[in-house]
């Protein structure tokens, strides 16, 4: 009798699996792996990190359209260009939502920021502001000197360190400084990553430390897996460690952004900015706030700036690090890229953004890097209503994952996809080639920051190739293993390279003179006079009280990609 009772759970499990199988068939749902979903966890037990590789293996065995169960959440996995096109064109509006994940509550201003907001009037307004006011070609051209300046600051540091003998360079910290300083100067006119040679006040050191701490934590938690997003029972058990981290990060991030915006407001009052004068992005939005206060609220400005910061930095630095790694493992390609730069730019001036259109092979290197290691390997969406994909019924509320990495590394689509061959993109007018290549997504939720990212990556990578010789630190090839967590697709092992100067004497002097003059300007510039600072402090005190009161009543605060 006791043995009979022990068999009951097993019998119930078998009945549950068969019932679920027949319901799946009768509803004409997309196929799924032969391994059945288990109660509570669904198919999570068959998945491994990195997720895009695990899902690509399942697709290779079970088809390019699959419906999996992540806990209690149905997930449609797409791994072919034709299915991706059907989802992102024919069903574009249906899949225009983002899934509501825990990170969106605390880092997406309660699902109201551009990345996490549901499709509707509010999201369309945010998208309009991002595409037209912030990331338009005209606006990006205005900030070209900032990007050029930050690239030359990076070159200067490398030159000073390697002018007498080759040095070993940690690539990621160098690219972190470049991308975050470039983007933050566009956003706020401020730098937060400095070298040992920079002379800083105690206040500047404190703000830089706070900012670096916040950004580092954002990158960590945004890439962390939260099983509570897929298994609600875990949320019922109480607040998780990840949620506590998100709550703490939310408070620190909001306070920093409130102080920054308040300081820039006071600067505008003191300087009486001409609306036609070039300003940073926050000041530009604050100017618009005067005429449309309901649209350009402080919270909207904070959320927009944080989206640009997160989406425009980690992805760019990741792409450049992967590109450098691939070039070191393929010296023929590196030599060809250097020869192209010498032919079209020469050795008596720096690469400029205006040169990028005349450097097609450099562009091919970047595209091939993004094909092999896309910054956003998975594109998440969610269906707003029932629809049909590939002849199958897809229910409302289904999470959609377009496996960009799987499509871009499919041997049936790309010949020899594991080989780094930039020449495959030579002669192509557009680099998307249908839906075979989607490094910035597609459709309504595509990344509006594509232009900014391509400019920064092209200028940064081109300058490094032009000005320095690069070599591996050992005879072995660079390890190309992928990290398991991060906003984008990080390298598992940070790149270390040997660098030596190959600059012409004239361009060396340009780098030194240009950056030294900028260093002097930064040190001589006074941002806020004492009288204004007192007013800033008073206003900040009021803002802090207001912010704390708001948190007691509602969780309202600010993934890879923008839209």
From TrEMBL:
Coiled coil: none
UniProt cross-references to Pfam families, sorted A to Z: p450 (PF00067)
GO molecular function, one term: monooxygenase activity
Organism: Mikania micrantha (bitter vine)
Subcellular location: Membrane
Family from the record: Belongs to the cytochrome P450 family.
A GO CC term attached to the entry: membrane
Cofactor(s) this protein cannot do without: heme
Statement: the UniProt record of this protein carries the keyword Nuclease: no
Primary location class: membrane
Keyword Membrane in annotation: yes
InterPro entries linked to this entry: Cyt_P450 (IPR001128), Cyt_P450_CS (IPR017972), Cyt_P450_E_grp-I (IPR002401), Cyt_P450_sf (IPR036396), Plant_Cytochrome_P450_Monoox (IPR050651)
Transmembrane segments: 6-23
Gene3D superfamilies the UniProt entry points to: Cytochrome P450 (1.10.630.10)
Domain of life: Eukaryota
This protein's UniProt keywords: Heme, Iron, Membrane, Metal-binding, Monooxygenase, Oxidoreductase, Transmembrane, Transmembrane helix
Name of the featured protein: Cytochrome P450
Binding residue positions for heme: 447
């Amino acid at each position: 009798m006791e043995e009979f009772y022990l068999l009951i759970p097993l019998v119930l499990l078998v009945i549950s699996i068969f019932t679920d199988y027949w319901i799946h068939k009768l509803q004409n749902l997309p196929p799924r792996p032969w391994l059945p979903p288990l109660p509570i966890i669904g198919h999570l037990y068959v998945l491994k990190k990195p997720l895009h590789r695990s899902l690509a293996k399942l697709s290779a065995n079970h088809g390019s359209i699959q419906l999996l169960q992540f806990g209690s959440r149905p997930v449609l996995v797409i791994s072919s260009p034709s299915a991706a096109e059907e989802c992102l064109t024919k069903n574009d509006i249906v899949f225009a939502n983002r899934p509501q994940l825990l990170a969106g509550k605390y880092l997406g201003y309660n699902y109201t920021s551009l990345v996490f907001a549901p499709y509707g009037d509010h999201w369309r307004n945010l998208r309009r502001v991002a595409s037209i006011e912030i990331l338009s070609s005209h606006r990006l051209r205005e900030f070209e000197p900032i990007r050029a300046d930050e690239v030359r600051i990076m070159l200067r540091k490398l030159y000073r360190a390697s002018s007498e003998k080759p040095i070993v360079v940690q690539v990621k910290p160098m690219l972190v400084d470049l991308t975050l300083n470039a983007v933050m100067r566009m956003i706020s006119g401020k730098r937060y990553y400095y070298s040992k040679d920079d002379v800083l006040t105690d206040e500047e050191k404190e703000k830089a430390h706070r900012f670096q701490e916040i950004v580092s934590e954002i990158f960590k938690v945004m890439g962390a897996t939260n099983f509570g997003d897929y298994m609600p029972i875990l949320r019922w058990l109480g607040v998780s460690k990840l949620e506590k981290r998100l709550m703490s990060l939310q408070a620190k991030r909001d306070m920093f952004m409130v102080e920054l915006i308040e300081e820039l407001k006071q600067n505008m009052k003191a300087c009486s900015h001409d609306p036609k004068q070039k300003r940073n992005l926050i000041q530009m939005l604050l100017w618009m706030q005067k005429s449309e206060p309901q649209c350009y609220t402080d919270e909207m400005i904070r959320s927009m700036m944080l989206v640009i910061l997160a989406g425009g930095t980690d992805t760019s630095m990741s792409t450049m690090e992967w590109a450098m790694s691939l070039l070191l493992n393929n010296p023929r390609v590196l030599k060809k890229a250097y020869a192209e730069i010498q032919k079209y730019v020469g050795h008596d001036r720096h690469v400029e953004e205006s040169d990028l259109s005349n450097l097609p092979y450099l562009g091919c290197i970047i595209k091939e890097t993004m094909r092999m290691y896309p910054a956003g390997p998975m594109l998440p969406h969610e269906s707003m209503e029932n629809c049909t994909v590939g002849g199958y019924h897809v229910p409302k509320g289904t999470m959609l994952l377009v496996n960009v990495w799987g499509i871009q590394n499919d041997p049936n689509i790309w010949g020899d996809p594991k080989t780094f061959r930039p020449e495959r993109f030579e002669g192509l007018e557009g680099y998307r080639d249908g839906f075979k290549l989607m490094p910035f997504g597609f459709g309504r939720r595509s990344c509006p920051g594509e232009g900014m990212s391509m400019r920064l990556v092209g200028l940064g990578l081109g300058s490094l190739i032009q000005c320095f010789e690069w070599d591996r630190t050992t005879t072995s090839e660079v390890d190309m293993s992928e990290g398991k967590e991060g906003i984008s697709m990080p390298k598992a092992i940070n790149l270390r390279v040997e660098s030596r100067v190959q600059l012409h004497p004239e361009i060396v002097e340009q780098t030194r003179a240009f950056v030294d003059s900028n260093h002097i300007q930064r040190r001589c510039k006074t941002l806020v006079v004492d009288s204004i600072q007192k007013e800033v402090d008073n206003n900040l005190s009021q803002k802090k009280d207001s912010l704390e009161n708001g948190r007691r009543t509602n969780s309202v605060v600010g993934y890879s990609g923008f839209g």
